[in-house]
Amino acid sequence: MAYIEFKDIDKFYGKNHVLKGINLEIEQGDFVTLLGPSGCGKSTLLRCLAGLEQTSGGQIILDGEDITQKDPKDRNIGMVFQQYSLFPNMTVKENLAFGLKLQKLPADEIEKRVKDSVEMVELIGKENEYPSNLSGGQQQRVALARGIVMRPKVLLLDEPLSAIDAKLRKSLQTSIREIHKELGLTSVFVTHDQDEAMVMSDVIHLFHNGIIEQSGNPVNIYTKPATSFAAGFIGNYNILDKKDMKQLTGKDWSGDVAIRPETLRISREQITTGESYKMQGVILDRVPRGNVLRYKVRTNNVDVHVDVLFRSASMYEIGDTAFMALADHNCVRL
Ligand code: ADP
Ligand code: MG
């Protein structure tokens, strides 16, 4: 049996049907990400699990126990939010000890747990600082420490890195993964950022309008999108309908097809290798995107994006002729 089970979870806000019969299982020890655009219901599901929000229907099981009606404080779930929500009038240490004191743990146990958590989030030396003296990244580390100091069964993280600048975000991503592993936590992470989901997760659940559109490990989700929405949200796919595909390849197709930009091969000479489909086109545009150049190529009135690594690129100019080749196994039927 899975560690966490959502069974037919519905949630309405008035007439707004926000979660539409969610069925989801999470294995113990996994780092699981709910990925999707803003407003699709990710936070709502997380808040239902934490007990901060009541479900309108369905059941939530944690470790074999039905917790659907249980008080949030009895669920043994830690939570970290985008806004750090620290007590401004308390030091780091006091922020961390707060929940433990409410639980009336002995002073030496509190001391030990606070020390362990501070070490884990790499804030040694900051114990007596107030939040206002810390950077955003450091404050989020305190919030993370507060999430784990109670030794929760499950750690929930709702877009915890969205307000943190890009460089610090990487180091916090690493810290979160390490803490997850070291404590043997089961973690549920929410983000709208596909790259972040890819880096962090054992399993990704792609959300769309209150349903789960697709679930899988990062490689699976990236290489085998099941729907147009999945292909559009992840991996910058070219999405072509059957008419476009016919123009591009000369053969008949039964529905939409997704093609990743880096799977189209591009050459100055006619291509004679074994790929199924060969095309000739003209370069319409080119844009640097990180370590690749993204070309827009028009062929038989169909425009596709093609990514080429900078170092391997003899650069094409706009208006140049380009030959392309595409293997059939890189045409993902949606
Ligand atoms: P996400 O986290 O994926 O961005 P949310 O779960 O926050 O999405 O929101 C899903 C939908 O529920 C949105 O349409 C949002 O406006 C609505 N919603 C969220 N919280 C409330 C609330 N407390 N009251 C009314 N509507 C809400
Ligand atoms: Mg949200």
Automatic annotation (TrEMBL):
<dbReference type="InterPro" id="IPR008995">
    <property type="entry name" value="Mo/tungstate-bd_C_term_dom"/>
</dbReference>
<dbReference type="InterPro" id="IPR013611">
    <property type="entry name" value="Transp-assoc_OB_typ2"/>
</dbReference>
<keyword id="KW-0813">Transport</keyword>
<dbReference type="GO" id="GO:0016887">
    <property type="term" value="F:ATP hydrolysis activity"/>
</dbReference>
<dbReference type="InterPro" id="IPR027417">
    <property type="entry name" value="P-loop_NTPase"/>
</dbReference>
<dbReference type="InterPro" id="IPR050093">
    <property type="entry name" value="ABC_SmlMolc_Importer"/>
</dbReference>
<dbReference type="GO" id="GO:0140359">
    <property type="term" value="F:ABC-type transporter activity"/>
</dbReference>
<keyword id="KW-0547">Nucleotide-binding</keyword>
<protein>
    <submittedName>
        <fullName>Putative spermidine/putrescine transport system ATP-binding protein</fullName>
    </submittedName>
</protein>
<dbReference type="GO" id="GO:0005524">
    <property type="term" value="F:ATP binding"/>
</dbReference>
<dbReference type="GO" id="GO:0043190">
    <property type="term" value="C:ATP-binding cassette (ABC) transporter complex"/>
</dbReference>
<dbReference type="Pfam" id="PF00005">
    <property type="entry name" value="ABC_tran"/>
</dbReference>
<dbReference type="Pfam" id="PF08402">
    <property type="entry name" value="TOBE_2"/>
</dbReference>
<feature type="domain" description="ABC transporter">
    <location>
        <begin position="4"/>
        <end position="234"/>
    </location>
</feature>
<dbReference type="InterPro" id="IPR003593">
    <property type="entry name" value="AAA+_ATPase"/>
</dbReference>
<dbReference type="InterPro" id="IPR017871">
    <property type="entry name" value="ABC_transporter-like_CS"/>
</dbReference>
<keyword id="KW-0067">ATP-binding</keyword>
<dbReference type="InterPro" id="IPR003439">
    <property type="entry name" value="ABC_transporter-like_ATP-bd"/>
</dbReference>
